[in-house]
Amino acid sequence: MGSTGVAHNFARDYIRIWDKRRTYLEASIADDDAEAAMDAVLSLKNSALMVGAARLAQLAVQLERLVKCGDLPAVRRLLPFVALTGEQTVSGLKVGYLPPEA
């Protein structure tokens, strides 16, 4: 990313909008909106890849396949794992990557 400051800012932004991403995915699945679900999954996958969240990115790849197949019920069953993995990612970034706030 060029500099540590830029990377730290990206990680902070990722943390700040995690709940919005998760909520968007959950709402799209609750509404049975495959198009919005795909948008949410791609956002989740790409941001996870960019922040180095390998487990979350792998889960998003699985979700992408399921949405492409039209299996929104299977996506719905995975939502608790998405939430847990996302929270673990946020926690890991806060504790293991970002410097303490001054």
From TrEMBL:
Residues 21-80 form the HPt domain. It comes from the Bacteria. Gene3D superfamilies: HPT domain. GO terms for biological process: phosphorelay signal transduction system. InterPro entries: HPT_dom_sf, Sig_transdc_His_kin_Hpt_dom. This is HPt domain-containing protein. It comes from Arthrobacter globiformis (strain ATCC 8010 / DSM 20124 / JCM 1332 / NBRC 12137 / NCIMB 8907 / NRRL B-2979 / 168). The lineage of its organism: Bacteria, Bacillati, Actinomycetota, Actinomycetes, Micrococcales.
